[in-house]
Amino acid sequence: MKFQVISKYTPQGDQANAIAKLSQGTIKGDEFQTLWGVTGSGKTYVMAKIIEKVQCPTLIISPNKTLAVQLYEEFQTFFPKNNVHYFVSYYDYYQPEAYMPATDTYVDKDVKINDEIDRMRHAAVQSLLVNKDTIIVASVSAIYNLGDPKQYDNVIKQFCLNQKITELGLMEELIKLQYERNDYDLSRGKFRKRTNYIDVWTSGTDEIVRMQVIGAKITSIEVSKAPFGVFKKADRIAMYPAKFWVSENNYADVLPDIQKELDSSLAKFKKQEKLLEAERLKRRTEYDMAMIRETGFCSGIENYSRYMEGRKPGEPPFSLLDYYPKDFLLFMDESHIAVPQVKGMYFGDKARKDTLIEYGFRLPSARDNRPLKFEEFEEIKKRVIFTSATPSDYERDHSKQIVEQVIRPTHLLDPEIEIRPTQNQIKDIITEIRKRVEKKQRVLVLTLTKKLAEAVAKHLEENKIKAQYLHSEIKTFQRTETLANLRKGKFDVLVGINLLREGLDLPEVSLITILDADKEGFLRDDTSLIQIMGRAARHPEGRVIMYADKITGSMKRAIDLTNKRRDIQNEYNKKNGFKPEPIIREIKDTFKDQLPGEEDVLPKKEFLNEYLKELKSKLDLARRNLQFDKAALIKSKIDQLSKKLKDPS
CA dist 448 to 336, 455, 480, 521, 524, Å? Predict the structure, then answer.
């Protein structure tokens, strides 16, 4: 199916020009292009229209999970008929294996995997293999080792009616696909044996496949929505691997190569008289080899991925990018953050692995289980569009063309900027806040430290101004709730630090005040200042007040660029007779009206426990992705089901 944008919007302002130029450059084969768009100019819509014109599988890399899920939901809205997927790290908790020589402390790998995100990762990869109209929104997890796509594709099993296979043979095939047998607790990636059939909870879908084998032949295939539902008959089913680390060959075949490297490393340690390190390495590696020999798997098997995938030392690992066809399109959203992030991943991983290898906890080949180096990442990607309000030197230097998107569809202008002295700045801020409160507008106050943010918020409260503070120590749920309450008018002023930058959409905010604007540094460089000031560009009366006793180079560059854009926007509006329109965006209130009623159908009795477990996993995912409206619905279902279990009557 072709990509088709379904939206009530039509290109406005600079959007049509950006769509035409960037689409033409992509079709022509330009390796790097940049969409330099101001905050609120509709960059996501432009990205969607480019995908529609170019018609090729697309990967969008976002610098964090919060922004990634926002983009994922937006693209689902734009492409309801196409395959839009989400690919981020599936760890709820991740403590990597590490060793600290100074204190002789070894920390074993400790992880908690989110089952729902794992399903979404599998669904994304499986869609790529069969659907050309696939869009994946990913975090930097996209550059990490994922396993050989050819091996993954080759082990996919097709089961069909009347296929000759014994019940034991069917279970053996499932085990080769890394499905685990569990007759008591059926969940994703597992199968169970019943008297007359075998149930399999598939890896990338919310489906249970039920197959019946009689007389060494598959006599029935049925598929049901997991963990309950009506089973519907099917003629055939494709069974994808339960894990990415699979091979059509026996993993035990690589054990001689691992043994050879172990012997070499042990000889090196003994020559250096590092007997403790040698013993550590011998015990660890021989245990892993025994597990691979007996079960085809071991904890930390990814550290032997170079052998499993037949790669030479130093060769790049296989990542999500390798699952894409050669003609795919890559967007790097908020590229001024995403590019440095991709650059830094390899070096952090290497430093940790080097220590483990030096002290005998891992073989040297463990280094090849790693994220891509930046130069390897550059070689794989062929057609890239960077999107940012503040592109860095890398994007500007490498782009064949830079397309500016200055005019907003709402015709709103960049904010007016004023510089005031720091003397009596808090008193001045209070005066300005009261002016906005009278108009039922909101205010952001930016400080440099958490302590000052808390102190300013407290001082404002003492002056009978409704204020709250926000910084990194505030929990995720509370942060989102705080922002929603600001929009609703439950308080008027939000005091924060650097959290008030990318990804915030607060159209009620008309004033941003920046304390210590002349303190040159990371939080007050031109990129940060432009991003911060952009938060006021969603209101017709948007204004920024910088409190400073001097104008730094960063301040001058940020102010000059903002004023230049404001002049262009103002001239465009006058020429075309447009007036800035306020952004009216729904504020999601309580979810009582959306909650399911008692008449909702519950699953069959045999699936109640599985259903409850699945709901809890989905609740956890929704909370982590800040989808609290969805979380409220799921929580209500859990409460309803728990009540039914306690009181069957």
Answer: 21, 12, 21, 10, 9
Tell me how far CA of residue 504 lies from CA of 126, 169, 309, 508, in angstroms: 32, 54, 42, 12
H or E element in which residue 192 lies: strand 190-193
Type of residue found at 132:
K
Distances (CA, A) of 272 to 353, 460, 593: 20, 65, 71
Q: Is 485 helix (H, G, I), strand (E, B) or coil?
A: helix
How many secondary structure helices (H) and strands (E) does the chain include? 19, 25
- Amino acid residing at 382: K
Rounded CA-CA distance 569/39 in Å is 13
Please provide residue 486's backbone torsions phi and psi, each rounded to the nearest 5 degrees.
Answer: -65, -45
Is the pLDDT confidence value at 75 over 90?
yes
Q: Is 195 exposed, middle or buried (0-12, 13-18, 19+ CB in 10 A)?
A: exposed
Nearest-5° Cα angle at 292, 291 to 298: 65
Give residue-wise pLDDT tens across range 92-144.
Answer: 666 788 888 888 888 888 767 777 888 899 999 999 999 999 999 999 999 99
Query: What percent of the chain lies above the pLDDT cut of 70?
Result: 88
Name residue 54's amino acid. V
Q: Exposed, middle or buried: residue 30 (CB in 10 Å: 0-12, 13-18, 19+)?
A: middle
Residue 89: what pLDDT? 84
The rounded radius of gyration (Å) of the Cα atoms in the chain is 28
The mean-pLDDT minimum among 223-237, 260-274, 537-551 falls in 223-237
C-alpha angle 149-154-160 in degrees, rounded to nearest 5: 135
Which among 141, 152, 137 is positioned nearest to 114, based on CA atoms? 141
Question: Quick check: helix, strand or coil at residue 606?
Answer: helix
Q: Distance (Å, rounded) from C-alpha 495 to C-alpha 485?
A: 13
Q: What's the CA angle centered on 536, arms 516 and 79, to 5 degrees? A: 130
Cβ count within 10 A of residue 55 = 16
- Please provide the average confidence, as pLDDT, over all residues in the chain: 86
Lowest mean pLDDT among 23-27, 168-172, 184-188, 286-290: 184-188
Question: What one-character DSSP code corresponds to residue 319?
Answer: -
Please check whether residue 390 is in contact with residue 530, taking contact to mean a CB–CB distance below 8 angstroms. yes
CA distances from 115 to 188, 210, 620 (A): 8, 21, 10
In whole angstroms, how far apart are CA 436 and each of 439, 455, 492, 544?
Answer: 5, 21, 9, 13
Cβ atoms of 36 and 404 closer than 8 Å? yes
